[in-house]
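Thread title: Can someone regenerate the structure for this chain?

I was given the following input by a collaborator and told the matching C-alpha cells would be attached. They weren't. Posting the sequence so someone can regenerate them.
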Amino acid sequence: MMKRNTLLALTLFMGFFALNSTAQEKKQKASPPASVKETTSSGVTISIDYSQPSVKGREIGKEIAPYGKVWRTGANEATTFEVSKDVKIEGKSLPAGKYGLYTIPGEKEWTIIFNKTWKQWGTDYAEKDDALRVTVKPEKSSVATEQMTFKIDKSGKVTLLWGDKSVSFRVK
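Best answer:
Regenerated them for you:
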C-alpha cells in the first residue's frame, strides 16, 4: 500500500512539474513562433520561419526595430528565409538555400538582408556573412497588425506587416 501511495504521489508531482514547465516555457517566449510557406506560380517554394513580436503601443523605428540599425526581423532565433530554386529578389540573384533574414528599417526605405548564417540567435548578426541586400520602399498599411506577420502570394510577393508598416519585396 505504501509503495502504491508513493507511486501515486510521484506521478502527481511529475504531472504538475510537466504542466508548470510548459507554462513557464510559454511565458518565456512572449513572441510566438510562426511560419508561412507558398509555392509561387513559377514553381519556387518560399518558406519563412519566425517569431512574432507585438507592437504593444511602442513606436516602430524608435522604441522597437530602430531606424538605421540592423534588426533581426522578428524575435528570439534568427528569422529564416528559404527558397527551393535560384531566384532573383528585386532583380538581384540569390542561390537556392536557407538564409537568416534581417532588415535595416528606415522611414523612406528598408534594406532587406539575406545572411548565409541562419541557425543562430537573432542578435548574432555578422555583415561579412551577407549573401544579398536589397532596398525597398515601405508603405503605410491600411490596417494595423499587432503581431509581426509575413505573407507570401503566388506571384512571389513577400510582405512583412507590422503596426502600420507594410514592407514588400519580389521573388522571381
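The CA atoms of residues 2 and 86 lie 66 Å apart.
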